[in-house]
Design goal:
The protein is an alpha+beta fold and 81 residues long. Helices cover 40% and strands 15% of the residues. It contains three helices and two strands; from the N terminus they run H-E-E-H-H.
């Protein structure tokens, strides 16, 4: 089944993929998408099967910006248990 929808380009170049398509393709916030420009025709593809739960966790931890002291505290707590 082909779904064709119009979307609006936001100020910062962002688009919202319609919910119907996100649901069908099982897309979630943070999923990696590839944008192709083929002689003026644009395509968006989801990168499937490459992002593991471990990669998602690592990305969340990177964004959390833990300091060295934070990690030392976590290690100490783990050793106590």
């Amino acid at each position: 089944m082909i779904i064709e929808k119009y979307v609006t380009l936001g100020e910062r170049g962002q688009i919202v993929i319609p919910k119907e398509i996100r649901d069908r393709e099982r897309l979630m916030s943070g999923d990696l998408l590839k944008v192709l420009d083929l002689n003026g025709e644009m395509f968006i593809r989801a990168k499937k099967g490459k992002i593991t739960p471990e990669h998602r966790i690592l990305e969340i931890l990177r964004k959390a910006k833990f300091t060295q002291k934070d990690w030392e505290h976590i290690r100490r707590e783990r050793n106590i248990e």
